[in-house]
Design brief:
With about 625 residues, the protein is mainly beta. Among the domains are: about 340-460, Lipocalin (Beta Barrel); about 470-615, TonB (TolA/TonB C-terminal domain, 2-Layer Sandwich), CATH 3.30.2420.10. It contains 6 helices and 46 strands. It has a 7-stranded antiparallel β-sheet with strand order 5-6-7-8-9-10-11, with no helix packed on it. Strands 42, 43, 44, 45 and 46 form a 5-stranded mixed β-sheet that branches. Strands 1-2-3-4 form a 4-stranded antiparallel β-sheet, with no helix packed on it. A hairpin with a 2-residue loop joins β24 and β25. The chain is globular.
Length: about 625
């Protein structure tokens, strides 16, 4: 079983930040001016288009789409809208229903469907989308035409173009089974206890004898179905297998590089690096051994962070990273590290601290920038904010290119290629828009003042009262009923969407994950129906840190939405959002993943199981 130590903030919103797609400098500035006009009436959602905007009216809750001139393309009557650039469509949501519209506002598929897969980024996979309606399941293409009709009673998961798995749960006998089929209905594999697509044209299969193997999409056996456990993918052409509690390794042809019967590696085998180097775990500590079980890297690290074809990275003490080559030779040590870009980005980029200064490395751990920055932090997927000196901050993209710099204390992306920049001095603030070319709506006078303020803030920081000494006002709607939003909610105070310092769960993101894991109730209906997915909940973190105005933005059915609301209602006080040194009401959006774990430790407390999941799952999604 893989054990990976994850260094990342939770990606609270599945945002995309692609390149500008060839837009000219003049077109970009025209877009800046258009956004500045639209901001008077609308709150703009982050997206990738160049001539249309997903917006919410400031006085309303519904979302719609307008063009650069303010013309309404899609009316304001939806609870949520997402852009699916891969399909050239907008995904529309009302309550738990989903539909699609094209960029002309024409409804391609009415709001009658429910997604049966997680919606992260583009919902269409290779131009196809799994949908359900009235208890039946099928697949549509980007025109709304049914490729697989709504005739199946069981969940459909897309494997690849032309292939799907049908997953059936026998309630009477408590048995789950899967079948691999072509879109025309021809059965290729199964029924087996479980079939899961692991990518690269391969499927992980648990047969009816509780033995595991790997098959391809044509039904050919790649790794014989004779193991108690096989991995969920090949790393450098190798995969972990287990038989009778013994560790082994197979290659992509199914050949046993290390036969489990030889029991050369007695510890818990996590990941093969090469045919002669393997990451292992024992008593909670991780190291590396060779093919004969001889220790190469001592068991003194907390987890495996990453493994590439020529190196691997082990973590220790929350943020320290230790990099080794493929032979186990130590290369370097980074003092701190953060994953800058979420998993759905094409490339994972890391902000790393070396000798007290920060820089960026790509997914192969090659330097994208020199280590010259005073600080680096997550900005938005695809971008990193760095501090150059006391006066200047900048945005760097995922290729290491500096897009713009200036005297900005806060930089927030509000649209692909468009940024809101703000500088504070006490209760005063100056703000404007900047694009990826560095063009800005700020005047020279404003920039001069912002630069002066940044210098003053560095040399003469204003005294900020401790939070506990600030007179905190309680919102009138402290106990808001779940999923309901009163029309007059907090009329007396502004509710911020983006603030200088975001609200923080006590103990940070790992503590938030543990709280969710230990307090989220998986509804029996959802569990029995094998419903997996992500509920998105919106709520207000109030000035005193309490949570109110809880609303389900997206549900997956089976009672999961209400379970998520009940969990949020039980949260302790947060550290409130701060604007200009003062606590403010802040809207927060939290994806809550419902996932059935088949690999939990058999024994242990709920806390131990949650800790196990924290180290063995992609919870940061």
């Amino acid at each position: 079983m893989k054990k990976r130590l994850i260094f990342a903030l939770i990606a609270f919103l599945p945002l995309h930040a692609a390149a500008q797609g060839g837009i000219s400098k003049r077109q970009s500035f025209q877009r800046l001016e258009a956004i500045q006009r639209l901001q008077k009436d609308y709150i703009i959602s982050l997206q990738r288009s160049t001539d249309q905007f997903i917006v919410r009216q400031k006085e309303g809750e519904a979302f719609g789409v307008v063009d650069t001139g303010g013309r309404v393309v899609i009316p304001f009557q939806y609870d949520w809208i997402e852009e699916d650039c891969g399909a050239g469509l907008y995904v529309l949501f009302n309550d738990t229903a989903m539909g699609f519209a094209d960029r002309n506002g024409r409804i391609v598929a009415p709001l009658v469907y429910g997604p049966i897969e997680d919606i992260y980024g583009d919902i269409f996979y290779k131009g196809l989308c799994s949908v359900s309606r009235d208890g039946k399941y099928g697949i549509i293409d980007r025109t709304g035409r049914f490729v697989v009709p709504l005739v199946y009673d069981d969940y459909i998961y897309l494997c690849d173009s032309g292939y799907m798995t049908i997953n059936h749960y026998d309630y009477e006998n408590n048995i789950f089974s899967s079948i691999l089929m072509r879109f025309n209905g021809d059965t290729i594999l199964g029924p087996f206890s479980h079939i899961s697509y692991i990518g690269d044209g391969l499927l992980r299969v648990d047969n009816n004898k509780h033995l595991c193997g790997i098959y391809d999409l044509e039904g050919n056996e790649v790794v014989k179905c004779k193991y108690d456990y096989v991995g969920y993918g090949f790393n450098n052409g190798l995969m972990v297998v287990k038989k009778y509690g013994r560790n082994g390794v197979v290659d992509r042809s199914g050949r046993e590089v290390i036969p489990p019967a030889e029991n050369r590696i007695p510890d818990i085998l996590i990941e093969p690096i090469t045919s002669n180097l393997f990451i292992v775990e024992k008593e909670g500590k991780v190291g590396a051994v060779d093919s004969m079980g001889q220790m190469i890297v001592p068991l003194e690290y907390d987890g495996l962070v990453d493994a590439t074809s020529d190196r691997f990275v082990l973590g220790k003490n929350d943020y320290d990273l230790y990099v080794f080559d493929a032979t186990g030779r130590f290369i370097t040590h980074y003092e701190q590290a953060y994953l800058i870009f979420a998993e759905y980005e094409p490339q994972t980029v890391r902000a790393l601290k070396l000798n007290g200064l920060w820089g960026l490395c790509d997914s192969a751990w090659r330097e994208l920038t020199p280590f010259i920055y005073k600080s680096a932090e997550q900005s938005y997927p695809g971008h990193c904010k760095v501090t150059i000196d006391d006066v200047t901050t900048a945005i760097i993209d995922d290729r290491g290119k500096m897009l713009f710099k200036g005297p900005y204390s806060t930089i927030m992306q509000i649209y692909d290629g468009v940024w809101q920049v703000v500088t504070y001095r006490g209760d005063e603030q100056i703000g404007g828009l900047v694009d990826d070319f560095g063009q800005t709506t700020l005047t020279r006078g404003q920039l001069k003042t912002m630069k002066r303020w940044m210098k003053l803030n560095a040399t003469e920081p204003l005294e900020v009262m401790p939070l506990e000494d600030v007179a905190i006002e309680k919102a009138e709607t402290e106990s808001v009923e779940a999923v309901e939003t009163p029309e007059d909610y907090m009329d007396v105070d502004e509710v911020f969407v983006v603030v200088e310092h975001q609200p923080e769960f006590p103990g940070g993101d790992s503590a938030l994950y543990m709280f969710i894991c230990m307090n989220l109730s998986y509804p029996d209906l959802a569990r029995d129906s094998h419903i997996n997915g992500t509920v998105i909940v919106s709520f207000i973190v109030q000035k005193d840190g309490t949570v109110g105005n809880i609303k389900v933005v997206r549900d997956i059915g089976g009672g999961c939405g209400q379970a998520a609301v009940e969990m949020v209602k039980s949260m302790p006080r947060w550290k409130p959002g701060m604007q200009a040194g003062k606590p403010v009401y802040t809207q927060f959006i939290l994806p809550i993943k419902f996932e059935i774990y088949d690999d939990d430790p058999i024994d242990g407390t709920i806390e131990q199981k949650c800790l196990y999941r924290l180290n063995n799952s992609s919870w940061k999604k």
